[in-house]
Design a protein that fits this description.
Layout lengths: L1 H11 L3 H10 L8 H14 L3 H9 L9 H13 L4 H10 L8 H13 L4 H10 L8 H13 L4 H10 L8 H13 L6
Length: about 190
């Protein structure tokens, strides 16, 4: 029953106000069984998440109730196969919860593409741990941004150095990026 599910969510540590906010984003939270949800929460805790982190993921709209436990397990193991540590996976998913819903094929293609243009696997992991949204971009978008920076006079190695230390630059609009570069040059930071 819905009352039993609400009681269960309160038992997990949610306030009624939080439950109202969460269920307006993720109505399916009150539809599934408490046992299934509890099993997924326990799985994620066993993986290394803290209970409060799993609850935070749910609050942020991570569709835990919609995904099968096996799907979550496969996605976490997929990131491990790319060389990410459990801590890095947890960090990235807390920063960008929808990451765990992206297709493994898309993530792998992005990873391989970044490697093909000269990023090391360690640098790809570093960049995506800082800015996991990179995995939300198309390969064309990433290449266009890379080439845009090259068009400003930077070499491939300079573009890689800039984006490794500031991967969120991939998320800037070209206009915003130009404004920031002009500003940095005005204040004497000519390396950008």
């Amino acid at each position: 029953s819905i009352k039993a599910k609400l009681d269960y969510l309160v038992e997990l540590g949610y306030s009624y106000c939080e439950i109202l906010k969460i269920t307006s984003k993720v109505p399916s939270l009150i539809c599934g069984s408490s046992e299934s949800l509890n099993s997924k929460i326990n799985f994620m805790i066993d993986f290394g998440y803290k209970k409060k982190e799993v609850l935070r993921l749910i609050k942020q709209g991570f569709p835990l109730t919609k995904l099968k436990e096996e799907t979550i397990k496969n996605k976490l193991n997929f990131f491990i196969s790319l060389g990410y540590t459990k801590e890095e996976i947890i960090h990235m998913s807390l920063k960008y919860p929808i990451l765990l819903c992206f297709s493994s094929t898309h993530i792998l293609n992005t990873f391989k593409f970044l490697k093909s243009i000269g990023y090391s696997e360690d640098n790809i992991r570093k960049m995506t741990c800082i800015f996991p949204s990179i995995y939300s971009f198309s390969i064309k978008y990433i290449l266009d941004k890379f080439n845009f920076l090259k068009g400003l006079g930077y070499t491939d190695n300079q573009v890689k150095d800039i984006t490794i230390s500031l991967p969120s630059i991939f998320g800037f609009s070209n206009k915003n990026l130009l404004d920031k570069i002009r500003y940095y040059k005005e204040i004497g930071l000519s390396d950008l």
